[in-house]
Prior knowledge:
By secondary structure, this protein is α/β, with parallel strands linked by helices.
Amino acid sequence: xxxxxxxxxxxxxxxxxxxxxxxxxxxxxxxxxxxxxxxxxxxxxxxxxxxxxxxxxxxxxxxxxxxxxxxxxxxxxxxxxxxxxxxxxxxxxxxxxxxxxxxxxxxxxxxxxxxxxxxxxxxxxxxxxxxxxxxxxxxxxxxxxxxxxxxxxxxxxxxxxxxxxxxxxxxxxxxxxxxxxxxxxxxxxxxxxxxxxxxxxxxxxxxxxxxxxxxxxxxxxxxxxxxxxxxxxxxxxxxxxxxxxxxxxxxxxxxxxxxxxxxxxxxxxxxxxxxxxxxxxxxxxxxxxxxxxxxxxxxxxxxxxxxxxxxxxxxxxxxxxxxxxxxxxxxxxxxxxxxxxxxxxxxxxxxxxxxxxxxxxx
Length: 362
Ligand SMILES: *Cc1c(COP(=O)(O)O)cnc(C)c1O
């Protein structure tokens, strides 16, 4: 009962992604997509991953605890420097102006030049800006180790042409920058772009993947991914209701006929997204539809006479995967993982997650 996170699935996904040709630069932002920073980073570290990316400095500090000698890259613009220097974190350069303003803090800090190919989040917006950043780093003797971008349209529908233009922009800028500077790591592809195996990204050293590690695909179904997440709950009450009766709060649902309903002790307060009701839940391998809405602490299924109080309900698992709900168009897969609350009991399979790591900073 509750949530089960399968660390062996994460191990297996890491291995399978790497058979595509490049080592993984693991994206573990937001508590490793809300699957748990410690177990996920510890597992990937045991599997040999030595490159991790997060969004914030706080997340990077946490990753450092579990991955003592790994590269840990902070993507957000950094303005506090003590931990970066003490814990040897890598930092992304968001713009030329940021670089110049932060110059006094940057000696010995490993820097990654980010190219903005169209997302308008961070990164050099023109080739000229990128060139100025490289020149500044060289003149100042800064440790410019990485070159990267992020493709915001890699998993968008109907944006293939625009995505291709962005890949072309990165390929063009990055190949010209590589002629001027020796970068240790070049990383661009997220999960969806990894699948495209675009020859224009042949000079990249790593794939910077998140959702694939956890076993889900934002694009077409990927048969070889192993889902890492299951969620079960149980039936806590069963009722017979009459035609015309409402169920739960409001009048949004009116029973068309006499029916048998089951009450589940799970709702959006546990992070079960309302989007989940677009597909049935399974009890003893039989599918039953959600009715009415998903409320804060409860939700409802229309069931048959086989269902009893105490029966196990599969919310996510073998029959309904995160990806299946994503394909209904009502919530994306990272969003469903991130919504889930840790107030639900959790169990980890396939890992030695209780052993405290030996914390040694590089
Ligand atoms: C989240 C993120 C990724 C990973 O994206 P997935 O689609 O989960 O593989 C890669 N790079 C950056 C900069 C990100 O923010």
